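Hey,
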Amino acid sequence: MDGYRVALFFHLLALVAASAASGLVHVAESRAHRAATLREARMWLMLTAKTARTFPIAVVVLFGTGAYMISARPGWTWSTGWVVAGIGGAILLLAQGGVLGGRGRKMKLAIQQLAADGGLDRAATLPHDPVIGALSWANTALAISIVFVMTTKPTLEGAILELAIGYVLGVVIGLSGKRSPAADGESAALAAESVPSASE
């Protein structure tokens, strides 16, 4: 067993952790926006915030292990096309993670204000944030595209094209997940059922 194989193991482990965390975040975001009460919405958003902490750690591990593997393999340099594109993609992942964190904090403050006005057991009235949906799925698709680039090792132009295609597909998926009027009506009905009437 050599250092390269150990680095490769942790490289893949970071990818698995990021993929699992990504799946949890998407489920939690969807459930938060379909929650019947503010208490339930806050619970799902808290899970999103805690799970999102995995991403910067995973990116750091990916970058560190990747750097070691580049230095250990002859012919791979920091100026190699697919390496440059991969680093750029990782930086974009971190930057968008910061944007998502900021918008998530705004959503948390909105819930706190709504709770102060009517309590956590009132019906959830959270607006759908298309930026959160688009960027979260863009990050997922971008991460998968980076893995593809690292596997196929194309030229710089080819790597940028592969990353761009994955990014656009992620944005499209995120925007297509916007709540429909039917889904809004279903949530409203569930909320109405959960609130006791004055005659009870």
